[in-house]
Amino acid sequence: MILLWGLMEDEPMGMAHAALAKAGADCFFLDHRKVLTSEIEYAYGAGTGGRCTVTQGAETVDLGSVRAAYLRGYNFLDFEEMRDRPRDDPLAARAMGFQLQLMAFLDSSGCLVINRFAPSATNFSKPLQLTVIRRAGLGIPETFISNDAVAVRRFLSRNPDSVYKSISGVRSIVRRVSQAHYGFMDDVGWCPTLFQRVVPGINYRVHVVGDEVLAVRLESDQLDYRYGDTTQVAADLPAEVAQKCRMLNSMLGLHFSGIDLMRTPDDEWFCFEVNPSPGFSYFEMGSGQPISSALARFMMDANRRR
Amino acid sequence: MILVLSNVANDAAKELVGMFPPGAASLVTASNLNRSFTAGISVGDFSPSEISVGGTRTCAGEIGGVVSTIPHFLPQEFYYIEPADRDYVCAEVSAFFIYFLSELRCRKVNSPSTRALSGLGMQRIEWAGTAARCGVPVQPFRVKNGMPAAEDARELRYLKSTIIDGAIVGDRAPDAVCGYMRSLTRAFEMPYLSCLFAGSGGDDYALVELTDVPDVAIPANREAIVRFLRQPP
Fold this sequence. Notes:
The structure holds two protein chains of two kinds.
Chain A: E1 2-6, H1 11-22, E2 27-31, E3 39-45, E4 49-56, E5 59-62, E6 68-71, H2 90-108, E7 112-114, H3 117-120, H4 126-135, E8 143-146, H5 149-158, E9 162-165, E10 175-176, E11 193-197, E12 202-209, E13 212-220, E14 230-235, H6 239-251, E15 256-263, E16 269-275, H7 281-287, H8 291-305
Parallel strand pairs in A: 1-2, 1-6, 6-7
Antiparallel strand pairs in A: 3-4, 4-5, 8-11, 9-10, 9-11, 12-13, 12-15, 13-14, 15-16
Helix pairs in contact in A: 1-8
Chain B: E1 2-6, H1 11-18, E2 25-29, H2 33-36, E3 37-43, E4 50-53, E5 56-59, E6 65-68, H3 86-103, E7 107-109, H4 124-133, E8 141-144, E9 147-148, E10 157-164, E11 167-169, H5 175-188, E12 192-199, E13 205-211, H6 219-230
Parallel strand pairs in B: 1-2, 1-6, 6-7
Antiparallel strand pairs in B: 3-4, 4-5, 8-9, 10-11, 10-12, 12-13
């Protein structure tokens, strides 16, 4: 069985579900919106090991029968039922407990999980992820993290054309450092910040699904293509770069990832970061790259194999 | 220089710092971060990167040991930040330290993971399988919606055991339990583990709890940690 966990109105989940349905896959959709009323139970016995079941509405599923899982959980605190409730509301604690238990069971199971929590968490620390990117053989832009304004000024004097962004996985708009920023540079003393030399070139978004590599070239009028007028074209990567992307995906312990690359005018390739839960729908709809089909095929292969 | 990462309320962490020669160890907390720790780290050229610990300037490669007594920073520790921004600052500082601690090539109690500043941040469901695979009996348990369900109602004897750097700390434990502790510390690659075992008689103990964040409130643990960090690399 293939387990899907998320919201059907989430485009990547909807597209993955549609691709699996079209291919006739045996799927169970665990609706995240029902997390507040669903139940998950785990029992560990000395002779039997662990057994975990999920009940949603009238249906109970033995998670031991899951051979592949695609997870795109959301922040349940944003759900209508949670409006005006405090974070420590018993309903929130129950929902959080459900999520953690589901992740813990799947992470410790032998099934294909897209993606397990611990590998996905490298995205919570960009510099940590950048060290893995380097080890995979891809270039990284000169990067400096600091809570010391003097040290930041020194970095910026050497790299005047730089951007700043979050160190963690919290989504932030990448911004170019301007003269105006020097006026409040001392603020980094309150919160460490990541600075990165600007690398000129053309953005590529690469989705790695198992061994399959699907690349999209992005031509944008903005530094951060997510916030600009962007043209997408399906592209082929040089074999060596594609292989490094596969290796990076594997070194991070991921099965499916979205890798942000930059190709410079000198034909050098730099990598900015890896998204372990890529919102691939934007790129599939923009470029025609059949990412959801590749994802469905990958999960169905795992479902047959195991 | 030894870094002790903790929270400002942990007096035992301060005592641990005091067990090293003056200036050899420093306490770093979220609450006094801009006084206790500043850094400018070049990703990709980590060791020579300049840091300041407790006012002493050094470089990252000179850190000789780390003790993290907390799995996470908490937003409320950043009391000096506007409430609306505390979650963000907490996430940023956590991301910074997970990277920083991961890159240090020194003794760590315990090493960080992507999920925690110290240890693997595992739930019981996760460590139970690994423990069983390395031959450690695990006490049967049930979890519902993340909460432990009713446990074995029989009268059980409980025994807590801590291992640091391969040596059992504190009271003598049965040989079987010592063997389990050594298997677990190897399996999880963590120099510090503290485990609770339950037994119904004889030496038939089974694992109930596993903690990989060091408890420095226990004097014997502090002494063992100091011995571990004083060893040559």
